[in-house]
Design a protein that fits this description.
- The chain has helices at residues 2-12, 20-58, 78-85, 120-124, 150-156, 201-206, 212-219, 238-249, 263-287, 289-301, 303-311, 316-352, 373-407, and strands at 64-68, 74-75, 90-105, 108-117, 131-134, 139-140, 143-149, 167-172, 186-197, 207-211, 224-225, 227-232, 253-257.
- It is of the alpha+beta class.
- The chain has two domains: 2-58 and 265-407, no CATH class; 64-257, no CATH class.
- The strands form two sheets. The chain has a six-stranded mixed beta barrel with strand order 3-4-10-7-9-8.
- A hairpin with a 2-residue loop joins strand 6 and strand 7 (143-149).
- Helix 2 runs antiparallel to helix 10 and helix 9 packs parallel to helix 13.
- The relative contact order is 0.19.
- Its main location: membrane.
Length: 408
Amino acid sequence: MRLPLFISRRYFFSKKKKNFINIIAIISMLVVSIGTAALIIVLSVFNGMEGLLRSIYGEFDAAIQVTLAQGKSFELTDDLKFKINSTNGVSGITEVIEDNALLKYNDSQMIIKLKGLSDNFIEEGRMKDAITQGELTFEQDSRPQAIVGRGIQFRMGISIRNEFTFLELYYPKNVQPGSLNPSSYYSRSIIAPGGFFALEQYYDDNYIFVPLAFAEQLLDYKGKRTALEISIDDPSQVTRIQNDLQESLGTDYIVKNADQQHEDLYKTLQIEKLFVFITLTLVVAIASINIFFSLSMLVTEKKADISLLLAMGANSTMIRKIFLIEGAIIAFLGAGSGLLVGFVVVWLQDTFGLVTMGVESAIVLAYPVKIIASDFIFSALSIILITFLASIQPSLRAANQSQFLRIK
């Protein structure tokens, strides 16, 4: 192996004046390097976005959520609460009522998601870092208060300083046909805005959090709940607690951990990441055609060298190895330099935030990035495999040419 490697290195790192074939080989290596670096950078951005979403939702989402397998709401019975509270590791239950409602403020109105939460939600402080104005409280001076998303605040011009204008919430009733009283078609309640939050765009633009009793009265749920959010003592035991709860509650309920509560979103990110990986890998594969042409021309140019090696006792296997190693040098130098460049760029972005979001009100100022070792491994293996495959045909051609020269 030493002799083929020595000859391949001489072909690539020749100190003589670079000819056209050498230039193509160098360009091929640079294309592989740029493609690899781009692949690492883009994958790191996807990792950073996923990590950012997990951290954002982690501030608000419960460790475990219990919902009904079929249907919208369920009766919160003492037996159900006992099963949950008796599960080892459970520290508390937040009762949830969530449904759509019509919000009216001054002359503006819109459909929002109203989420009623029991008082221990405030005690847990899951949204304490998301409050942009006002306080994280459902009550002030014995009056119920709402915590409103910042997007709703901006859209409807809601102000906590205006003590004379309240949020008006409407919810349709199930009425019998033939009723002539318009007010019997809906429930109406008013509540003061007590604070605004900035959590994530979907929540900010759609959600209003209110006391559980307020939501129960407006939505006419009467002891029913749409979900139960479970807090736990030890986050490392979440899988075990989730399995215990699912076994205890049975198939009538669905028990989800924090990731499963946003499973569709994370799956979408993973699919997008996969397609980006495939797309950029195909770009590198197309660029690897340069390696095929450069090696093919090198075989033609080194015809005399092949004849000399044959005269010195080399066989077709050695000739094939020389050109395979030549392709491997291009592959490893291109992939290696690309991985290094990609790592440096990602590290600089993570450390100094070179590329910003361009929006002052963004949750983070710079684009989030995250390095994952598996991305480096799979990217390197893919690039090396592609460039190696591009080297096979020219090396076989060189081996066949050596057999022809030997016969001749």
